[in-house]
Design a protein that fits this description.
four-stranded mixed β-sheet, alpha+beta, globular, binds zinc ion
Length: about 180
């Protein structure tokens, strides 16, 4: 049996992020720079990656956006300041994924509620999965469940994410049960 590569996926990691194109790369980078990594200090990581992060009130379900300033070439991330800080963390992680993996494909990303639109677009699906791994690395997630607590609320508090994000991450790592 041969392995076949999914043809619609054409990731061209921008050359400035060749060394930082996976969640694991970013966590190692953050650690080297002295940032907290369990859970990760995601807003400082965005800044270290050269992204300008702005918080402003946005409409309803809009989570955030990432845009390249055409004049300066700077990447600007906007996060909905009305959302819960845990939700903002997911937004920041998701936009970081767009920056390091999809910047060669587009220079404007606008995001509404994650998960709801599902995997209609491979970049969105990839950014969600990237964000979940960055915020809840499998080893840390498994360690927490096995040694501290397996309730969704407790895991969400520890990793500073929404309980919805915890449930999706748990499912992707093969956990099942009452709480997860
Ligand atoms: Zn997105």
């Amino acid at each position: 049996m041969a392995f076949v590569r999914k043809s619609e996926k054409r990731v061209q990691v921008s050359s400035d992020f060749e060394e930082l194109s996976t969640p694991e790369d970013l966590i190692a980078f953050a650690s080297k720079k002295g940032l907290e990594t369990n859970p990760i200090n995601i807003s400082e990581l965005a800044i270290l990656l050269g992204i300008q992060v702005r918080y402003q009130p946005m409409q309803g379900e809009e989570s955030g956006s990432l845009k390249k300033d055409k004049k300066t070439g700077d990447w600007i991330m906007t996060v909905n300041s009305l959302h819960h800080p845990h939700r903002q963390r997911f937004t920041i992680a998701h936009e970081i994924a767009h920056r390091v993996r999809h910047a060669a494909n587009s220079d404007t990303f606008e995001d509404a509620t994650f998960f709801r639109n599902g995997d209609s677009n491979w970049m969105e699906a990839e950014a969600n999965s990237f964000a979940a791994t960055l915020l809840m690395p499998s080893e840390d997630f498994e360690y927490y469940i096995e040694n501290v607590s397996s309730t969704v609320e407790s895991i969400a508090m520890h990793f500073k994410v929404s309980s919805h994000a915890v449930r999706i991450r748990a499912k992707s790592l093969g956990y099942e049960g009452h709480n997860l």
